[in-house]
Specification:
Layout (H helix, E strand, L loop, with lengths): L1 H23 L7 E5 L2 E5 L3 H4 L4 E4 L5 H12 L2 E2 L5 E6 L3 E5 L2 E6 L2 H15 L8 H10 L2 E7 L9 H18 L7 E8 L2 E4 L2 E3 L2 E3 L13 E6 L4 E5 L2 E6 L1 H15 L3 H5 L4
Parallel strand pairs: 2-6, 3-4, 3-5, 5-7, 8-9, 8-13, 13-15
Antiparallel strand pairs: 1-2, 6-7, 9-10, 11-12, 14-15
């Protein structure tokens, strides 16, 4: 009977609306759905509005993965207790957004950090990969760690070189201290007009001097940071590339830092 079918459908809609109200604590609204870097996003507000949320309120946690996520978001945001709240917890992997709150969830540490990366990619409008493990593996298995950074970066983007040298030195030290490998080499370059100029590096495990200023081929495996309009983190052969407008470079670098070594930032602050 048409009347009974209509009543049944109406009942289902009402039930779903009530369930959503229970979950969000807000009246039922039109949902905005997206998928960012393989992470589902459900929002009660237009996702474009989130891109203006540069001030955020973060909640402290003793959980290592949540702490890394908090550091990641804090590095590219301004803290404000009156701003939208970021709640990070273990649960069904996804990003759940309401008017003044974002819930970032992951089934385990790996999934939680993936959702964390996805949130920043969503907010800063950067195209993210879904496979962070492959990126991490490149730097934890390669014996030659190449870093190529655009020499024309300025402002916060200019800190990319030091930030990434720090995390690669951490990976180098961690791998060598394990005793499994005798030597891991880091080779930093500055990229000028599509030419790569070797840079010196002196750390605990390596003293690299540059005897020649001659440019070298830039088409080498490693981490490449370029200024451009693509606004994306992607892989191309053995290269991991961040190509973005200068205002987005810092966000991309922080994401890559924590994707390569999630425990690095905690080690910097003396945390486990």
């Amino acid at each position: 009977m048409p009347g009974k079918k209509f009543n049944y459908a109406l009942s289902v809609i009402i039930l779903l609306s009530l369930l959503w109200m229970v979950y969000t604590g807000l009246p039922s609204k039109r949902l905005h759905l997206a998928n960012v870097g393989g992470v589902s996003v459900v929002s009660t507000i237009p996702i474009e509005e989130v891109r203006a949320w540069k001030k955020l309120a973060l909640l402290r946690s003793s959980d290592p993965a949540i702490t890394t996520c908090n550091f990641e978001i804090a590095a590219v945001s301004k803290g404000d207790r009156y701003a939208p709240v970021i709640k990070i917890s273990k649960g069904e992997t996804g990003i759940y957004i309401t008017k003044n709150k974002v819930e970032i969830k992951g089934k385990n540490d790996e999934e939680l950090l993936k959702a964390c990366h996805a949130f920043l990619c969503l907010r800063d409008n950067i195209t993210c990969p879904s496979d962070w493990n492959t990126i991490k593996t490149i730097f934890w298995e390669s014996r030659e760690l190449n870093l190529i950074v655009d020499a024309n970066l300025s402002g916060t983007a200019a800190t990319s070189y030091a930030e990434l040298l720090g995390v690669l030195s951490y990976v180098q030290s961690a791998r060598m201290d394990l005793g499994r490998e005798s030597k891991i080499y880091i080779h930093p370059y500055l990229r000028i007009d599509k030419k790569c100029f070797p840079q010196p590096l002196h750390n605990f495990h390596q003293n690299l001097s540059v005897n020649s200023s001659s440019p070298q081929n830039c088409e080498i495996p490693g981490l490449h940071i370029y200024r451009g309009r693509k606004n994306a983190i992607y892989m191309e052969g053995g290269k991991v590339i961040l190509e973005a407008e200068e205002s987005k470079i810092h966000t991309g670098v922080v994401i890559l830092r924590d994707a390569i070594a999630p425990d690095y930032i905690r080690a910097i602050y003396g945390m486990k």
